[in-house]
Amino acid sequence: MSQTDASADTTPFFSDENEGEGPVDNGVGQSHSKEEESASGVSNRRAILTVIVLCYINLLNYMDRFTVAGVLPDIEHFFNISDGKSGLLQTVFICSYMFLAPIFGYLGDRYNRKVIMCVGIFFWCIVTLASSFIGKDYFWALLVTRGLVGVGEASYSTIAPTIIADLFIKEKRTNMLSVFYFAIPVGSGLGYIVGSKVDDVAGDWHWALRVTPGLGLLAVVLLVFVVQEPERGAIEAHPEHTVHRTSWLEDMKALCKNPSFVLSTFGFTAVAFVTGSLALWAPAFLFRAGVFNGEKQPCLKNPCDTSDSLIFGIITVVSGILGVAGGVQASKLLRIKTPRADPLVCAAGLLLAAPFLYLSIMFAQASTAATYVFIFLGETFLSMNWAIVADILLYVVIPTRRSTAEAFQIVLSHLMGDAFSPYLIGVVSDSLKKSDSYMWEFRSLQMSLLLCSFVAVGGGAFFLATALFIEQDRNLAENYVPCDDAPIVVPKRGRSTKVTLSSVLI
What we know:
This protein is mostly helical. 70% of the residues lie in helices and 2% in strands. The chain has a two-stranded antiparallel sheet. A hairpin with a 2-residue loop joins strand 1 and strand 2 (495-499). Helix 12 (259-293) runs antiparallel to helix 13 and helix 18 packs across helix 19. The radius of gyration is 24 Å and the shape is globular. The N and C termini lie close together (10 Å). Mean pLDDT is 78; it is low at 1-36, 485-492 and 496-506.
């Protein structure tokens, strides 16, 4: 009896050499390569197509998010609003996204992820399109629709990385995640570029918000006909039926006791704070610097000068591609020397970004060219974090808790990060403004943006702390063996120790 129990406890979990190979040959004539392909229930070709579709949707999400930032001067002039109210546009969206993420995280760990994403993205398309028809006396309606956009993004961002995790393992998973997270800087940059160019061509910023909904409907079609739901954990030899589900409260307790997950989440919060601030305010800051230097005319009628949004968008795309790729390659090379490579690379990215962001803000009053160079360097180092942080979460958390972990990370990083920072920067800017002159519009925003450099340093410190625990937590997740046995107490070197019943029977 005890022999049978021991086998039941250990058989479903293979060694590292067998990881991702799926079930052993049962003698019915199936080849090893075919079993390897079907370990997750999805063929290799379909898995690659799934990543492409998910990457496309992620790109659209960030395009939509930062189209508003690309036409922010026009929106401020159209609605006649202050910096504080402008910051609310990003804050309302992030708050909705943040509070809905745990709901979709819970659903994503328990129900069909493909269906959840399809419904959420379709709703996002409808709401985004509706927001483009709002008149100048209804700024509150724009805030409401931007908040509702968070429904679609929450339904997607908490789930998509877990699907990739269930399709690939180890180096291949890291590579696919890097492709997926390329969409963040590229989509963000395209948001500025598309927003500014559509505004210029149409002469109306409302048209900038009508681009992504049509592309989003195409994304829903691709989800329906291309993406296939993989079996949770099967690729890691932890199939769904062998990994026991626990309650949401137990999942949260386990995550809070995972130091690598918690510390990396705080580090990522710093990344969200800085990117959220720059995403909304950098084009407006550069425009005000141009007016302050006499290089540009103030915005007295729509459409405003959006050349800064275009240039900032191009910088964001290029620096994002270089940063994500550089971060992944640096991590791979450093892994040869230390298993703590991932958090160390993240820490280096933030600590190197901080001085360049500071210089970009301070040089804005003297040299526009130097400002762009320093922004490029700062964003490149900042982008080193995206794929690596996602990879850390996926390998320190067991498969049936990953959507919940993604949701928890989204809530915390956005609550203390980019849900808070755009509004904070705007309020600080308003409080520092001593007059309505163009000089103080620039100076006040300049001083408030300096917060970003100090927050980046703090984020680097959290990632350095993550490096102290990463080995232990990764081993615990990889060797996790669920057991329903109640713990009993047996003596061990004169002290009581809790062990499982199956361990005693073995």
